[in-house]
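pinned: reference chain
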Amino acid sequence: MFSASFKMSIKVRFFASLADSVGRREAECAFVPGMTVESVWHEINGDAPLPGGALVAINHDYCTLDQALNDKDEVAYFPPVTGG
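pinned: its C-alpha coordinates
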Protein backbone atom coordinates (compact mmCIF):
# COMPACT_ATOMS: atom_id res chain seq x y z
CA MET A 1 0.00 0.00 0.00
CA PHE A 2 1.29 3.46 -0.90
CA SER A 3 1.56 5.89 1.97
CA ALA A 4 2.43 9.55 1.57
CA SER A 5 2.37 12.44 3.93
CA PHE A 6 0.85 15.56 2.48
CA LYS A 7 2.14 18.86 3.73
CA MET A 8 -0.33 21.72 3.65
CA SER A 9 1.62 24.90 3.08
CA ILE A 10 1.72 28.46 1.78
CA LYS A 11 4.63 29.67 -0.35
CA VAL A 12 5.69 33.23 0.46
CA ARG A 13 7.73 35.62 -1.69
CA PHE A 14 9.20 39.00 -0.79
CA PHE A 15 10.27 41.51 -3.43
CA ALA A 16 12.73 44.41 -3.68
CA SER A 17 13.32 46.34 -0.43
CA LEU A 18 10.93 44.06 1.51
CA ALA A 19 13.20 41.11 0.72
CA ASP A 20 16.13 43.12 2.03
CA SER A 21 14.32 44.11 5.22
CA VAL A 22 13.18 40.56 6.09
CA GLY A 23 16.47 39.01 4.96
CA ARG A 24 15.09 36.55 2.42
CA ARG A 25 13.27 36.32 -0.87
CA GLU A 26 11.20 33.23 -0.14
CA ALA A 27 9.71 31.38 2.79
CA GLU A 28 7.14 28.71 3.46
CA CYS A 29 4.71 28.29 6.30
CA ALA A 30 2.22 25.63 7.29
CA PHE A 31 -1.30 26.27 6.06
CA VAL A 32 -3.95 26.62 8.74
CA PRO A 33 -7.60 27.10 7.71
CA GLY A 34 -8.66 30.69 8.26
CA MET A 35 -5.24 32.17 7.47
CA THR A 36 -5.15 35.57 5.79
CA VAL A 37 -2.45 37.43 3.90
CA GLU A 38 -1.82 39.51 7.02
CA SER A 39 -1.60 36.50 9.36
CA VAL A 40 0.98 34.89 7.06
CA TRP A 41 3.10 38.06 7.26
CA HIS A 42 3.10 37.81 11.06
CA GLU A 43 3.67 34.05 11.02
CA ILE A 44 6.84 34.60 8.99
CA ASN A 45 7.99 37.97 10.40
CA GLY A 46 6.71 38.00 13.97
CA ASP A 47 5.91 41.48 15.29
CA ALA A 48 7.61 43.31 12.40
CA PRO A 49 4.96 45.54 10.83
CA LEU A 50 4.16 45.32 7.14
CA PRO A 51 5.07 48.74 5.71
CA GLY A 52 2.11 51.00 5.00
CA GLY A 53 1.26 51.07 1.32
CA ALA A 54 2.77 47.65 0.66
CA LEU A 55 1.08 45.65 -2.08
CA VAL A 56 0.08 42.02 -1.65
CA ALA A 57 -0.97 39.32 -4.08
CA ILE A 58 -2.24 35.77 -3.99
CA ASN A 59 -1.32 33.60 -6.96
CA HIS A 60 -0.35 36.70 -9.00
CA ASP A 61 -3.61 38.59 -8.31
CA TYR A 62 -3.50 41.69 -6.11
CA CYS A 63 -5.64 41.44 -3.00
CA THR A 64 -6.26 42.94 0.44
CA LEU A 65 -4.61 41.93 3.71
CA ASP A 66 -7.79 40.28 4.98
CA GLN A 67 -8.03 37.94 1.99
CA ALA A 68 -8.40 34.31 3.11
CA LEU A 69 -5.92 31.74 1.82
CA ASN A 70 -6.14 28.19 0.59
CA ASP A 71 -3.63 25.37 0.82
CA LYS A 72 -0.84 25.69 -1.78
CA ASP A 73 -1.47 29.41 -2.41
CA GLU A 74 1.48 31.66 -3.13
CA VAL A 75 1.53 34.99 -1.31
CA ALA A 76 3.70 37.86 -2.55
CA TYR A 77 4.60 41.05 -0.69
CA PHE A 78 5.78 44.12 -2.61
CA PRO A 79 7.15 47.35 -1.13
CA PRO A 80 5.13 50.55 -1.45
CA VAL A 81 5.24 51.96 -4.95
CA THR A 82 6.00 55.61 -5.49
CA GLY A 83 6.03 57.62 -8.65
CA GLY A 84 5.03 60.80 -10.17
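why pinned: Helices lie at 16-22, 37-45. The chain has a mean pLDDT of 91.
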